[in-house]
Design goal:
Layout lengths: L1 H7 L17 E4 L1 H11 L4 H16 L6 H18 L25 E7 L7 E4 L13 H8 L9 E3 L6 E4 L9 H12 L4 E2 L2 E4 L15 H12 L2 H12 L5 E4 L12 H13 L1 H16 L4 E2 H7 L20 H13 L7 E6 L6 H12 L5 E6 L3 H13 L10 H9 L6 E6 L19 E6 L12 E3 L5 H12 L5 H13 L4 H14 L3 H10 L1 H5 L14 H9 L4 H10 L7 E2 L1 H8 L16 H12 L7 H13 L4 E5 L2 E5 L2 H9 L6 H15 L6 H12 L7 H13 L3 H19 L4 H11 L6 H19 L4 H16 L3 H18 L5 H16 L3 H19 L4 H16 L3 H19 L4 H16 L3 H17 L5 H16 L3 H19 L4 H17 L2 H19 L4 H16 L3 H19 L4 H17 L2 H18 L5 H16 L3 H18 L8 H13 L3 H14 L6 H17 L3 H14 L3 H14 L4 H11 L4 H8 L1
Parallel strand pairs: 1-2, 7-8, 10-13, 10-14, 11-12, 12-13
Antiparallel strand pairs: 2-3, 2-5, 4-5, 6-9, 15-17, 16-17
Helix pairs in contact: 3-4, 4-5, 6-11, 10-14, 14-15, 16-17, 16-18, 17-19, 22-27, 23-27, 24-27, 27-28, 28-29, 29-30, 30-31, 31-32, 32-33, 33-34, 33-35, 34-35, 35-36, 36-37, 37-38, 37-39, 38-39, 39-40, 39-41, 40-41, 41-42, 42-43, 43-44, 43-45, 44-45, 45-46, 45-47, 46-47, 47-48, 48-49, 49-50, 50-51, ...
Amino acid sequence: MYRIQYDRYPDDPDNVILPCDYFDLCGGSDAGGIIVIMLIKLRMSVEETSTEFGEMCRHVYEPANLTAGERTRRLRAYLEDLLARKDVPLDAKLCDSVKSSGLDFSDDPPRFVLARPRSNLQSFSTFRTYHIRAERTISISVIDATLATCAAHPSFLPVAVGPEGRRTEYIGTTLGVNNPIRQVISEAHALFGGDTFVASLVSLGAGEQRTISIPENASTQELTIALQSMVADCERVANEAAIQMGNLGIYSRFSVKQGFQAGYISLATIYSATSDYLDDPEVSSKLEQCITSLEIRQGLTTLEQLKYSGGGRVVHKSFPPITANYVERHEPWNIMIQALIELKSDDNQKLLVISGLGGCGKSTLVTRFASEYQSRFDYFFFIDATSEWTIRADLVQSVRSISPQYSQVTFDGALSFFTSPRSKKWALIYDNADDVSLRLASLLPSANHGVILVTTRNRSLAQITSGVHLELDVMSKSEAVEVLVRSSKREKNRDDISSLEELAAEVGYLPVALVQAGCYMFQTGCSAEEYIHVLRKHRKDLMGTAATGQRDKSHRSAYSAFDMSYEKLSPQLRDFLHLISFFHPANLPSAIISFAAKADFRLKPVDLGEQGDLFEGSIEFLRSVFCPSGSWQDRTLHQILADLQNYSLISHGFAYGTTLIRTHPLIHSWANDRIPLERVRLIKTAACRLLACACADGALEGHLMAHIDALISTPDHIALDDQATFAQKTRAMDRFTEAETMWQRIYKEVLKLHGSSSLFVATAALGWADTLVSNLDEMRNLETNAIEIFITLLGPCNPQTLKATMCLAATCWRQGHYSEAEALERQVLENCLKELGENDDVTTDAKAALSSTLRSIGRFEESERLQREVLQYRIRVYGESHPAVMDSMSELACLEMYQGRFEKAENIFRTVIEKQQASLGKEHPASIGALSALSLVLMKQNKLKEAEEIQRWLLQVEKRGGQSRPSFIQSMANLAQTLFRMKKYADASKFQRHVLRAQIRALGNHHPQTLNTLLYLVDIYQAQGRLAKCHILLSTTYIEIRSHYGRSHPETLKIMQGLSRFYLRARQFTKAARYGRYSLLKMYEKMGAMHPNTLNFARNLLSIYRSRGHHRLAFFLLLKWVQASFQERGESAEGTKESIMELGLTLFTLKRYRDAEKIQTYALEQALQSSSGKIKACWREVKHLSATFDAQRLYCKAKTLRKGLFASWDPQSNPKDYLRLQIDQYNTLHKMGLKKEAILQLDCIIGCASTLKSMVQIVHMAEKQRKPSPRQLRDFEDVEGSSIQAKRNTFES
């Protein structure tokens, strides 16, 4: 017992293991009976029993001159004193199970002692602490039973037991049953049943006696002693038992061989002889084998075999049967076969670790392997790897089953058998090695041959192999459907496939849950749809009910498979599982935990003065899970994640610079169902607290929405502060309808709690207003009311007042009131500078807001100046790599792009991307946003292929985060726009339709973004020639939007404008002009001349006028456009430049060439100024002005102008326009009579034509002017020589 205690508790010597807690049955006779009662009935340790037995011997056995009566009285007195010291009543019965003051007999293992009736010495009686069917248990006290079993004649008096008239006298069992090994087996058979397996049978002897002989002239007393010794020879019985059971390895006999040959033996002699006996190496080895059997507790033979045949032969454990619903899983099966069968490796051991969550089919897979390939091996054994002791037991049993010569083999011997070169063709399956504390490597045969398979939930066990690690996932969709069909015993019907697929997805494709579902459907006759409905309402009950009737008889449910791991988890790990069960099961960023913990879980992004009654309790809960040492440490979370992954309860990936925690849907619901009811509210509040804190970290914005949805799906137990934070994030994801509903409810609650003049009401009003994007008037009213409250309570220059005023300015901008928006923002900036100073975050935000407004109305110089001030401040305060600095740089890049300086914009965006990817990672939302902006700049420069590559990569990255996210939808919209420009209309329309459907789901049919997407889809359809589709789409939308908003609403006007463009393309000019004029007039009245929509409408009407030849109307329209642009935006604005260029073209069309030349020269000068003198950025202006020179026959000016452009223009950047300008130059040279230069120019044109299609286009354009004559072609040959013949032939063909 000491060795077992040391093995189990090496660092805790006070943790004593009692025999009464370790053995299943104990029996004894004579002094052995006394020891059994002390160890088991009185629950004494071995040390206590040894001490008490020694004292008893000194008082009772050592005095040689005592009579039998005196010795009996002494023994009774000693026993009464012992029971009194142990708080056991003196009249306590041996079979009592009632509690005494100090002891509880109810959980004691069964035990018995033996005695003989004096009236019949051929039989013996058994005094039991239990009841059996064969005979009634004798009612006898503890003291009488002890006296009876050791009442050896003539040393003790017989003991009388029973009432008067039926009293029976008992004496000891010295004659005949001093070794009660057979009686122990018989009692165990009667108590436990014949089918019960026996792991260990321990027999303790009283020492081997000297040779028994009868002396010559022996006296009567000597003859009696000799006869008693012959009858009581314990070793003879022990040897017979060893012969019968020795080959099983379960029987352990310990009896001192030397030192007990004298008559009476003193205690000192006994201790000395026993110590020498245990020091013997053979005895020590046998003792270790016994301890191993006791620890392993693995049954090797049945009580039936022991009682009637002596034990039989050890049989190894058979393989479990394959379930009747088995479905081949081809991918993992092929990996197994490749690694274990097909791979030729005679000099290396093949070791395959299969890990996965509980119930995913690991054991079934290896059982299938054993069934298929067992015949290939000489030895194939199945090892229960639940613990170290089950591994040791099964490995020993397996080797012992091979041959009787291995019957006494130990665990080390078993390992040696498999490492021996004589036995190479073997395979071992270590099944269910799930214990994370298990050191499996030390329990595997270390050899360069053999095959080992390990199934485990502990993913870290993959480290024991340098070969293949198979991470078994859930089933595929088709495999899952097949399991459902087989387990439900139904025919595979095409009509049922979709519902079965839905059911498979509902249970996460987990095999054990699929079998449960199929069996339930078979037993109840319900359909897949009905099961799904029941499952969603009663998931806990269904998933906790095992599937019965399976051949493997495991009858496990999905939840019971998970419970096996749950029982081994620490309270900290259980609380973590409970906590994350309130979030979405996929992609929970671990960064939210570290971010919240560093703020002590107290961050409140929105403060409405109502934090809930469990606020402090939830913080304490979070601290207990994540800060057990009192402070946040990263390794605490790392250890939690590692431990749970080792149990296969979670998995994780890495993306966007953070670890993403994932749980299987069923594990997710199981963890939630395992929360004690009294803790549900506390843990949900803690989950809300954790997520609300994380909402303050902008870097996590793209990962939070799914988890917010999971929490607010049941809005109870969420404090108003946290609800407001979640509503704010919902709005940030452009889910306006849901956010509006949430904020409206929050506003009413805050109003009820604090009254109408509270700061909290103003905060809620601003949150609600921010969601009303389709009701700008109501938005403005709420913001105005909030500003009034802030001014009243805090003053006009308080930061909160200033921020609210900036929100109002943004609303004015949305309404097209740019002047008012600018005035408000300038007022805010002035107050900030006055009250807060230049170096303040709020002042900087005010500058950034004003810069954005100025940019939108084309006042780029001032906008850029402000933005550079913002950038310098942020670099000085935050450093060059801070996200706020990156935002300012991106704003500067946008300014460059809006001014047509695309190269500068591209360079800035590339710098931003490089820094963000270095600090945040390539897939971080900020990096993705900058890449998206870069793709738009590339698209503006007609670098469409590179733009497409970036956008397709972005789409794949965003898709992993969910297809409903605004960033994913925007990426798809950008890609559709690029594909449209590349004339890949089919792909563009496919993506644009997906964008439209997503925006309708998220924003509704009437949202401005939805309408913009619809109009762009119409443009794609028109390019495809699907005019009927366009007409139907626009007409129905126009009717719906007009009835919703009214005829003169800006959104209705946008649809009108779409109809106008459609009629223009369909050449129905009258309708096009009518819709175009009305929509332009109303938009001008509502939004002003320089609103982007007004400008777009003006461009469309200009196209209509030109198409109908109404150039004078176009001229007057452009005059108004130029005048308004100069007044509102200034001469350097992009819109002003565009209007001037269009005016020049119109004058050219009206053949007012001198006026056109003046306008176009001015436009070229402005373009050169904005592009820092780079003429290649002004190719449009050069093209128009050179055409005007040609029309006035100023050929030299036209030639010189184009020549300067060609010198700095890369043909690959815009090949089509480059070729057109080259042809214009050829025509100019031809008109000037410069034939040789014209031929050289033609050669340059042909050299730039990379395809036959472009060659044909060049020829077609050249023939419009004049086809080269044979003489010109000969001149061409004279100039360049015969080397140009090939190109000339190509051109002729």
